[in-house]
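On clarity, I found the account of how folds are encoded harder to follow than it need be. For illustration, here is how one protein appears when written out as sequence plus structure tokens:

:::
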Amino acid sequence: MHVLLVEDSPTDADLLRRIFLRFSNEKSSLTHVDRLTTAIAQCHENSFDVVLLDLGLPDCDGIETVTEFRANVPTMPVIVLTMMDDDELALQVMACGAQDYLIKDQITGQLLMRSIRYAIEREQISQQLRNSERSVISALEQEQELSLLKSSFISMASHEFRTPMTTIRTSVELLQKFDRELTDQKRDDYFERIKAAISQIIHLLDEILLLGSGEAGGLRYQPEPLDLEKFCADLTENLRFSHSQHCTITAEYEGDCSNAVMDAALLWHILTNLLSNAIKYSPSGGNIRFSLLCQSGTAIFRVQDHGLGIPLKDQSHLFETFYRCSNVGKIQGTGLGLAIVKKCVDLHQGDIQVNSELEKGTMFTVTLPIQPSNSK
């Protein structure tokens, strides 16, 4: 038991020391100071179990002694010492955070030790209650966050699924009603719309399932030998074919990227989402610049567009699930893509940065280790 005695009267301090040493065991100790400021400094530098605090000190007096001490050392059990047998004062100091109130000329060895023991136990119980309260608050916050995510998901899903489902239903109805009157070209157009809508739904479901796997810890990092330049060339070629009427993609490669070891599936999600977003938020006929630089054991991927740009207030929330920027207007999106990108980058123990200016465009920079670290 380590006790700090804060008492400016040498006589009272000596008496209390003698009582304490007589009734405590040999492993216990008592440190004496005569100023409140010194007591606070001692508590910050050393570990004490309890403080015996005189109300009348040279640098502080009365109730303020307790409030000042508790403000600086909020979790230390406090036993107040005073010459005044005043019930009202006792209630006030207890309300300020003291665990007990002892009148100096009534202190006995048994009373002092019992008061010390009870003060320590009460503070421990109070700390447990505070910890329990924090745990309950944290659980409630998580529940609220989960509820918000569920609401966001329902809102997003109902909106994003509605458009392709409406396209499918309308096209099917037109085919049923006017099949004989339609030209082959028109019929093919409706079938292409149906297939595109189905692909949109499948893509949305894939994103939801992938993000769900990440949240549940089911998203795995499985590195394999990979020729990054060939991988990126194939990926950009597929995107060029799909979006040739909207944007052009310029690809640049530098350094030896042929001997990488990465997770191809995760890398595909990273680059596909970044390039698709760049295309989506660029004006028709715009150019997307994609570059890969391999140097010093790292692969640096950059995707740059000259589109909408990202408002500064939105940039800190980009990788949050379901978050969409305030300036996207009616451009469709789920708010899942960048959240997936961030998880895939983290699994590679990599880094992602964004630089953007409104109406001038955005550049994402992803830095990944070319080889897995030893901790993988």
